[in-house]
Write a structure and sequence with these properties.
By secondary structure, the protein is α+β, with helices and mostly antiparallel strands. It has one domain: Gcn5-related N-acetyltransferase (GNAT) (Aminopeptidase). Helix content is 32%, strand content 30%. Helix 2 crosses helix 4 and helix 5 packs across helix 6. It is globular and about 45 Å long. It has an 8-stranded mixed sheet.
Length: 197
């Protein structure tokens, strides 16, 4: 278990209710748990397959993968994410960033609150706002994008509260459980972010 001092050195942003911090080796158990638990799996592209239980063999592979990613640096899966935790240190989920076509001036962001007991408390909004601030302040990025699906009104609301603007809608591009879903594209420019400060 990490000491409070060790944990404090991994914090990258602090809000009124949550912190964002780097991943630690001690997060592996929570990560493994999240892979098969939580409402987040049902709304974050569930067609990619979500687990309801984990075999011992799969858990071993997931642990090995987590360790490889942890050692992979800034460009690994874990390097492009930060843990969302309460001020008391309880891990809640993660924020992420990803890019397309090696464009250093634009990246896309996302968020997953993996602990259902902490949904609908405004923690995701605060975490995403901290992440946006961190990504803009620490780089010369021009724009952040955020994509979500029409069956995720919670994410739409969070994006709008943080200052993202709906830039486009691809209508009926994916069928899931008998419903056609729209893909929604949100964005925030550096100028819009600076205007919110």
């Amino acid at each position: 278990m990490s000491s409070n001092k060790d944990l404090a050195s991994h914090i990258i942003a602090r809000g009124e209710h949550v912190i964002l911090r780097r991943w630690l080796a001690s997060d592996v158990d929570q990560f493994i748990y999240w892979l098969s638990h939580g409402e987040w799996r049902l709304i974050d592209a569930p067609w990619h397959g979500y687990k309801t239980e984990t075999t011992a063999e799969q858990e071993k592979r997931d642990r090995e993968w987590f360790t490889q990613q942890l050692n992979g640096g800034e460009e690994s899966w874990i390097g492009k994410r930060a843990v969302i935790a309460t001020l008391g240190g309880i891990p809640l989920g993660w924020v992420n960033r990803y890019s397309e076509n090696n464009n250093p001036y634009v990246c896309y962001v996302g968020i997953d609150i993996c602990e259902d007991a902490y949904l609908n408390r405004g923690l995701g909004t605060e975490a995403l706002r901290l992440w946006v601030d961190y990504l803009f302040a620490g780089s010369d990025r021009h724009k952040l994008g955020l994509d979500t699906w029409s069956f995720n009104p919670r994410m739409i609301h969070v994006a709008e509260k943080v200052g993202f603007v709906l830039e486009g809608r691809e209508c009926a591009v994916r069928q899931w459980q008998g419903e056609w879903l729209d893909l929604l594209h949100f964005g925030i420019l550096r100028e819009g972010w600076q205007g919110n400060g």
